[in-house]
Design goal:
Helix content is 52%, strand content 16%. The protein is of the alpha/beta class. Helix 1 links the parallel strand 1 and strand 2.
């Protein structure tokens, strides 16, 4: 049985997200199933030319894990992942060529498509070959592109683009033999919109490496020494982009909720000037707290997180989102990788209600507090309860990550779907 895993436009060689969510996952699946797995990436030609060496290295790395890699260069004339209608014909023409090549050169038994652009290719392959199609949506692509304002970007799809992608979404869902949602909230929204998809939906969340629980205490001691945390009460934020207003507001609330504590606010961020960010935050919060920021390689994040005491996930509804209910839907569905990493490090999470599935999980399983639903007194009371039962909170956080977000747990979920679809095909 030959499984083809298809990604489109995303950076197959440089993206930490693809490294953690695709490559790590496929290695586990290949080791467990014994199936032949091929990763195919449609890659913007500028990157294909620029990173030829990195592609060769990745091909060699994957071959050692029993996975083949094919990187297909395409013309992609927007810097962004979202495809407006004016560029869609160009993308579809190249996608059709890719579909023909995959169908006849690779002859897949099953095609797994990560994202809406990739699923456009998979739909053709399924139509021509009859092989099962797994549509791994990962996000509400039309709603997100039309409403989400993040990292200073304006809306990426206009109303006509949105309507077009909703029509395409309906066709993709109708064609798919299984549809993966990143969260229960996302699955519920799709089930409400498409009545016949419920029995084909399954939840496959973001995955992360989850260390043995016994090792966290060792990492904690080493991490606190490395980061110079001493015995200060440390709240940590991880991110590639920082909403300064949301972050400083939350840290200020923590400082005020427990003013006698020796707070240390730690930022593990991939920004151009981490020291400048720390200096700005220190100026906002005053000398009574300590603020540091540093860059951390993806593979070191959980080890360093283990040195902290609490994790924060601040999100503010952007002013530009207005009353758009599409933003509300996106906010209900998202499940960030940083949230899974926080729990894997045994940290309770102080989370915003706009953080979607993370807020729902925190509420349901007592893994932290939804801070923008709490009064200052309730936040202070929660901090006191957490301090009195820190070991219980840490154990619950780690166990939830191990059961739901560990790479092998998510790989098993996909593996079960593969088995069911391939057995049905015979």
């Amino acid at each position: 049985m030959h499984v083809v895993y298809l990604i489109a436009i995303e950076d197959v060689v440089r993206s930490p997200l693809i490294r953690s969510q695709v490559i790590a996952l496929l290695k586990v699946m290949a080791a467990r199933s014994g199936r032949r797995i091929t990763l195919v990436a449609l890659y913007p030609i500028a990157n294909w030319l620029r990173f030829r060496r990195e592609i060769r290295l990745l091909r060699r790395e994957l071959a050692e894990a029993g996975i083949a890699l094919h990187v297909l260069p395409i013309l992609f004339l927007t810097r962004l992942f979202y495809i407006p209608r004016r560029w869609l014909p160009l993308y579809l023409a190249q996608a059709w060529v890719a579909a023909v090549w995959i169908r006849f050169a690779l002859r897949p038994s099953l095609v797994h498509c990560r994202s809406y652009p990739a699923a456009l290719i998979g739909r053709w392959i399924r139509r021509w070959s009859g092989c099962p199609l797994v549509f791994d949506a990962r996000a509400l692509y039309p709603e997100e592109g039309a409403s989400r304002i993040e990292s200073g970007k304006t809306r990426l799809l206009d109303e006509q683009d949105f309507a077009l992608w909703k029509r395409l979404e309906g066709r993709l869902i109708a064609s798919a033999d299984a549809v993966a949602a990143v969260s229960q909230g996302m699955a519920g929204i799709l089930a409400d919109q498409y009545a016949d998809v419920a029995d084909r939906l399954f939840v496959a969340p973001a995955c992360t490496s989850v260390p043995p629980f016994a090792g966290l205490s060792t990492w904690r001691s080493a991490g606190r020494r490395e980061l110079g945390l001493g015995d200060r009460l440390t709240a940590v934020y991880v991110g590639g982009w920082v909403d300064r207003q949301a972050l400083s507001s939350l840290f200020r609330a923590l400082r005020d909720a427990m003013p006698a504590a020796a707070w240390h606010f730690l930022l593990l961020v991939s920004v151009a000037d981490p020291q400048g960010l720390a200096a700005w935050l220190q100026g906002e919060l005053g000398p009574a707290v300590a603020c540091t920021a540093r860059a951390a390689p993806q593979g070191e994040v959980i080890r360093l997180l283990a040195g902290a005491d609490l994790a924060v996930l601040p999100v503010w509804r952007p002013v530009g989102a207005g009353a758009d209910d599409r933003y509300e839907k996106v906010a209900r569905t998202i499940l960030s990788v940083k949230f899974t990493e926080y729990l894997a490090a045994g940290l309770p999470v102080i989370v915003s209600r706009w953080a979607g599935a993370a807020a729902e999980i925190v509420r349901a399983h007592d893994l932290g507090i939804v801070y923008d639903e709490a009064s200052p007194q309730e936040l202070a009371a929660w901090l006191a309860r957490w301090q009195a039962t820190r070991a219980d909170f840490s154990t619950r956080a780690w166990q939830y990550a191990r059961d739901h977000f560990a790479v092998d747990a998510v790989a098993a979920r996909y593996g079960e779907v593969y088995r069911r679809l391939l057995d049905r095909r015979g």
